From TrEMBL:
The protein's name: dTDP-4-amino-4,6-dideoxygalactose transaminase
GO MF annotations in UniProt: pyridoxal phosphate binding; transaminase activity
Cofactor: pyridoxal 5'-phosphate
Annotated keywords: Pyridoxal phosphate
GO biological process, any: polysaccharide biosynthetic process
CDD domains in UniProt: AHBA_syn
Family that this chain belongs to: Belongs to the DegT/DnrJ/EryC1 family.
Positions annotated as active site in the UniProt record: K179
Pfam families to which the protein is assigned, alphabetical: DegT_DnrJ_EryC1
InterPro entries given in the database record: DegT/StrS_aminotransferase (IPR000653), PyrdxlP-dep_Trfase (IPR015424), PyrdxlP-dep_Trfase_major (IPR015421), PyrdxlP-dep_Trfase_small (IPR015422)
Entry-annotated residues carrying N6-(pyridoxal phosphate)lysine: K179
Source organism (scientific name): Tessaracoccus oleiagri
Length: 374
């Protein structure tokens, strides 16, 4: 089965991990610090905190922002559930705003959803294409809120020449194997604000405070550390960080190849009846994580099943979040975001990863054309 996504691991990656395994530190060691520093340089963020997953990164970001009961987090339904469930974990209420033609959250829908309780506006860079972050920042800051950019799909993307991680108040990354780069499992939070960075670090480090000037009982002894606020163990290990450092060095290469694959899909699918290519807005330079074709005429499930029967592992990204039983049981109703629901009914992710060969892509395109013609 040809997968829709897959990691690219070379000998340099293997050696990087092996070096850690031969050394003294497996976790909370020098590779974690170096990985975070490299991410800061790459993204232009003031502080980066690595963590165990993209889901953990979202929870950390919401917690660092002080999100809690009585607050509202506005986000898109066209995302993996963690963007919303991370907000629920802090006790906040999730408010869904509909998407635009790019499948990203619509700033006009966001603006209409803002209330005095809005704490966070969380956009998602769907498929790798950045959200309209300047507009979301404007809306958020005018209402005393912060922005979280869920960039699980988009490390390496640029918006008006600026790297993702340097624009939103808080940005979260995922390094799952199918993403643009991987640490096997892992994620990170990037922020422009040093205080938010400190809060993110402490939350992901079980809430531990080691700064004597902030301690309540600083004279307890040289071993002393305190917990001032609740936190969790979301720390990334040096083993994972070493792989991340090696992968980050290859990210521009990955971006180039992903763009070649995406652009070929755009060109060749445009001439096939029954499929619509993805829409791109001006001012963005994405690293493409997904190729989200739209299958027209109510045939998405049929095409999904026939492609898989032929050994091509297409995928659907994503079920509208509020369709999940968790959210249904909280009172969310279908029909609230019609653009997202229409997009979901047509969306089909075609294979896209850095090591996809030209011949494999030809097979995908020809098979899709045959299925749609049948």
């Amino acid at each position: 089965m040809l997968p829709y996504g897959r990691q690219s691991i070379n000998e340099a990656d293997v050696e990087a991990v092996s070096e850690v395994l031969r050394g003294e530190w497996l976790t909370t060691g020098p590779y974690v610090a170096r990985f975070e520093e490299e991410l800061e340089k790459f993204t232009g963020a003031a502080r980066v905190v690595s963590c165990t997953s993209g889901t953990a990164a979202l929870h950390i970001a919401y917690a660092a922002a002080g999100t809690g009961p009585g607050d509202e987090v506005i986000t898109t339904p066209m995302t993996f559930v963690a963007t919303a469930s991370g907000a629920l974990a802090t006790g906040a209420k999730v408010v869904f705003a509909d998407i635009d033609e790019t499948a990203n959250i619509d700033p006009a829908a966001v603006e209409a959803a803002v209330t005095p309780a809005t704490k966070i506006i969380a956009g998602v860079d769907y498929a790798g294409q950045p959200v309209e972050i300047d507009r979301l920042n404007e809306i958020a800051h005018a209402n005393g809120a912060l922005t979280v950019e869920d960039a699980a799909h988009s490390i390496g993307s640029l918006v008006d020449g600026r790297p993702i991680g340097s624009v939103a108040d808080l940005t979260t990354f995922s390094f799952f194997p199918t993403k643009n780069m991987t640490t096997a499992e892992g994620g990170a939070v990037a922020t422009l604000d040093e205080d938010l960075g400190r809060r993110a670090h402490e939350f992901h480090f079980i809430g531990l405070v080691r700064d004597r000037e902030r301690m309540r009982y600083p004279d307890e002894g040289p071993w002393h550390q305190e917990v001032h606020e609740w936190g969790l163990n979301y720390r990334l290990s040096d083993v994972h960080a070493a792989l991340g450092i090696s992968q980050l060095a290859r990210l521009e290469q990955f971006k180039k190849r992903r763009r070649e694959i995406f652009d070929r899909y755009q060109r060749e699918l445009a001439g096939i009846d029954g499929v619509e290519v993805h829409r791109i807005r001006d001012g963005v330079d994405p690293i493409w994580h997904l190729y989200p074709a739209r299958i027209l005429g109510g045939r998405r499930r049929e095409v999904f099943e026939k492609m898989r029967e032929r050994g091509i592992g297409v995928q659907v990204n994503y079920l509208p979040v509020y369709w999940h039983p968790l959210f249904e049981d909280l009172g969310y109703k279908r029909g609230m975001c019609p653009n997202a629901e229409r997009f979901y009914s047509e969306q089909l992710s075609l294979p896209l990863f850095a090591d996809l060969t030209d011949d494999d892509q030809t097979r995908v395109i020809e098979t899709l054309a045959e299925v749609l013609a049948s």
